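Instructor's aside before we start: the two examples that follow are unrelated to each other. I chose them only because their records fit on one page, so don't look for a connection. First example below.
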Amino acid sequence: MFGGGGMNPRKMKQMMKQMGIDVTELEAEEVVIKTADEELVFSDAQVTRMDAQGQETYQIVGEPETRELGAGDDGDDNDEVADAIPADDVAIVAQRAGVPEDEAREALEAEDGDLAAAIARLE
């Protein structure tokens, strides 16, 4: 069993290097995972790339926002963007910014569905 609970991080890094495992922190601004039904958007995630014997593995740590697939893609027609904004996104923005849902929806429409930008706009 490999126990790293009480191990010194420097020692752990040295052992991983000896085993041929290279770990790199990536400065990602946004990570999007598209499934058949939705998009998971990580706006402020910690991303780590691990290269072990030529096989790359990525680890994402953070809280994703869920969007309907294709929400806000065209950005030309505000009515289509408004229709594409999920009620959950409106509720999240309203709660985080401490505003009524109609204001939250307006901010999301103005920011083409971008939750973080809408919250920043209202704060």
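Example two begins here.
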Amino acid sequence: MLDDIKDTAYDPSMALIRQLVTEYIIFPLGSLLVRQRFPEHVRSMLFYGPTGTGKTQVVRAIAHETNSVVFDLSPLSIENKYATSKKDTEAMVASVMIAAREY
């Protein structure tokens, strides 16, 4: 193990971030055996931070490693593609949820 996050001071080093992404996201998503042994795995993850820090790159790497599909609903990707009314936004999210359920 690279870092023992329970016994060491908080150090958001790249090695620690890589370790946590692997343990909490990639392993549970990519391995049926891990999901069966640890059913309480993390089901969602929030990435936040300033522009250009690699959030999208990490999500794409996770999707690639786990052979997953990513539905990008960021403002930049849906800009000028859907009307701004609440009803249209709800319809878009509902459509994505239906497609996600199929995958």
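The chain has two domains: 1-69, 71-103.
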